[in-house]
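>> received
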Amino acid sequence: MIDINHISKTFKRSNEKYTALVDVSLKIDKGDYISVSGLSGSGKSTLLNVIGGLIRPDAGEVIYKGESIYDQSGRFLNLYRKKDVGFMFQQFHLMPYLTVVENIGLSCYQKSHADAINDYLEKCSLVNIKDKYPSDLSVGEKQRAAFIRAIISNPELLLADEPTGNLDPQNSEILMTLIEEFHKKGGTVVLVSHDPTAIKYSNSNIKIGLGRIHIPAQTAAHLIPAFSLGIT
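>> returned
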């Protein structure tokens, strides 16, 4: 489904350079559920954003269904982000001037997507607050709304960046159960997390830290031999 080949990415901070990704290669098959864990600053979120078409790497390529996404037009990337990928961010990124329903509607590009909103609101226990604004929601409610927005258009790939980072254990379990339902229906998930509760749902875990990587046996099949990730 997705082949990540020899990706590297460096950022500039003032006059200093910060290397987040170094020669990263990874294979993601359809139906995978992969978690990525490691210390802050080890490149986890950068990797997720590169896969999602949000950050262009300095070197290497991301191949999706035979196409190198960063070699294509801006329109191709926009459609990839709109139709093929669902994003969940730790800070939710809900539009403050839109209601819950209106925020979710931003991801709908077919009538069938909009028609499914109420069903998802019921499943996520958000029906009673569907007309409220983000400022009126609890943290758990914001994250569940963000989850619906991410999957309402039936993307093939869900990218979740620390989805339980701001949640209490009860809300974390609720959210991870919803993500697991998406996976069981055939969705592919790549999740970045420090949370053992979140990681336990994945089929394989990649551990990253300061240029070193531990590859558990069940994960090895997903990795191309040249895989390395970290900061220098």
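>> The chain has one domain: 2-222.
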